[in-house]
Amino acid sequence: MRTAVCSIAWVKIFDRLKRAGVLEQKLSRKLVHITTGPIFVLTWLFFSDAPYARFIAAAVPCLNGIRLLAVGSGLISNPGLVNSMSRSGDKAELLRGPLYYIAVLAAVTVLFWRDNPAGAITVSMMCGGDGLADIVGRRFGTGKLPWNSNKSWAGSAAMFFAGMAMACGYFWLFCSLGYFECFPLQLVLPYLAVVCGACTLVESLPVNSWFDDNLSVPLVAAGVSMLVLPLAAAAAHGCSLPQQQHVLQMLHIG
Ligand SMILES: Nc1ccn([C@@H]2O[C@H](COP(=O)(O)OP(=O)(O)OP(=O)(O)O)[C@@H](O)[C@H]2O)c(=O)n1
Ligand SMILES: C/C(=C\CO)CCC[C@H](C)CCC[C@H](C)CCCC(C)C
């Protein structure tokens, strides 16, 4: 309940800052994008160990989703929310990017929760990575990517390193709190780099008009994490490359 109230208050704070002229619309929207997901992941730490805790936590994005559905479809009028969450001021936009974002938060909460790093990695790439790509790319993105003139090397580099830094932070935090097995960070880093690299590549493709970044990036982050994290675990337990391939075969991937 407290988290649900805080989520509304958090979005309102950015709306006020935008109205006061402290933040411009695009930046305010991106800061909401960058901060809400990662703060929500931190609230997971306040839940009990009960098996149903993840479902209670997932109620927060679900309630926000119902609110977006109601406003986006015109059932409820909330011009403030429409202005701060949409690019063009069109309420129907709430039913795309922002709704996908919330659906991803609900899905990773239920599917991965605190015991699978894939969840925190997915949120890191969708929020920290994709969000910073926009902020850095718009300001310093003069060198454009050869395969997409809308995206830049600076934006993609920011996405890769910001996503990776955030994922490492969560990895360290969740390990120190005993939610998943601690491996040396230098061992996990190459595997994490594969996940972040794949997400960065997908985000850079010129497919955004029909495949929203808030869907493509999390899908790739979760999928590749599930593929490489067992390998990282196997390597941490001293398995050789052939043994790691055996892990893949056991997962029906090799
Ligand atoms: N790898 C990237 C990603 C983004 N950008 C910059 O950030 C802007 C917005 O990118 P993006 O978020 O993909 O665009 P939209 O989907 O239109 O915006 P939003 O995510 O806010 O919906 C781009 O035009 C570009 O200037 C960039 O330079 N390099
Ligand atoms: C603008 C957004 C995405 C477009 O790319 C982000 C939309 C954010 C939502 C409207 C609010 C989401 C709230 C979270 C589910 C919970 C946050 C909890 C917390 C305590 C801040």
TrEMBL record:
Q: Does the keyword Kinase apply?
A: yes
State the family named in the UniProt similarity comment for this chain.
Belongs to the polyprenol kinase family.
- Under which main EC class is this enzyme filed? transferase
Q: Highest taxon of the source?
A: Eukaryota
Please list the reactions this protein catalyses. Answer: phytol + CTP = phytyl phosphate + CDP + H(+)
Q: Where in the cell is it found?
A: Plastid, Chloroplast membrane
Enzyme Commission no: 2.7.1.182
Q: Which organism is it from?
A: Tetradesmus obliquus
The record, for PANTHER family, names:
DOLICHOL KINASE, PHYTOL KINASE 1, CHLOROPLASTIC
Q: How does it sit in the membrane?
A: Multi-pass membrane protein
Give the matching InterPro entries: Phytol/farnesol_kinase (IPR039606)
Report the protein name in the record.
phytol kinase
The regions listed as transmembrane in this protein's record are: 31-47, 53-76, 97-114, 153-175, 187-207, 219-241
Keyword annotations? Chloroplast, Kinase, Membrane, Plastid, Transferase, Transit peptide, Transmembrane, Transmembrane helix
